[in-house]
Amino acid sequence: MTNIEGSVAVVTGAGRGIGRAIAIELSRMGAKVALAARGVAGLDETARMIGKGACVISTDVRKRDDVHKLLDQTVSTLGPIDILVNAAGVGIFGQVTDFSDDDYDAILDTNLRGIFLACRYVLPGMISRGKGDIVNIASIAGKVGTAKRAVYCASKFGVIGFSQALAEEVREHGVRVSVVCPGSTDSSFSQDPNREGKTRSKMLLPADVAHAVRTLVTQEPNSFISEIVLRPTRKP
Q1: How high is the pLDDT of residue 189?
Q2: Residue 152 among the catalytic residues
Q3: How many helices and strands (H and E) does the chain possess?
Q4: Stated pTM of the model
Q5: Which CATH number characterizes residue 124's domain?
Q6: d(Cα 12, Cα 10) in Å, to the nearest integer?
Q7: Exactly one of 152, 157, 162, 189 is catalytic; which is it?
Q8: Helix, strand or coil for residue 179?
Q9: Domain assignment of residue 198, yes or no
């Protein structure tokens, strides 16, 4: 198992839920972590939970300049980026006929465009050093479409397709791109209509997703797991 102590990691969506759990896990493993999200209060709480070695950078992943600032500031403060985890995400649910253009843009720009921007900007450095791990958090919703989640599913299908294609582009340079597809997770998407009637105690925890990320970034350098599909043991 590869040791990531001293590595520099960037985690988007680190102010809550899955992103927070991943940031905490990477920090426990000895990585220096840049925490990114729009809400500074959530980031400050994550940083407090981590303690030393965390850097808070307010970031809206929908905005190119914000993403560039995040990655530039990480490099100048912590050093070259070894691990990028794109966990920022938003869910707006409902019938397609009721969806506004703003809702559509919010989902696609956060869940997909933000990943594209971060990957495009971080890759030159990883390629030049001949190593790096990019982990994109998708969803079971990127595998199977369900009612009232059409736009959300489209974004997550996109994340999986983007990750698969990008992995093929950069694997010869020693850079690994993986995607994690969690099932029902007890996180912040409480407004999702597909959670109605489900038992929270049977859902995945954000820490379960963080454990999957741990597995990905500690692989030996001659192999990579391209995708992890993570489901609760019992259906919620």
Answers
A1: 60
A2: yes
A3: 7, 7
A4: 0.95
A5: 3.40.50.720
A6: 7
A7: 152
A8: strand
A9: yes
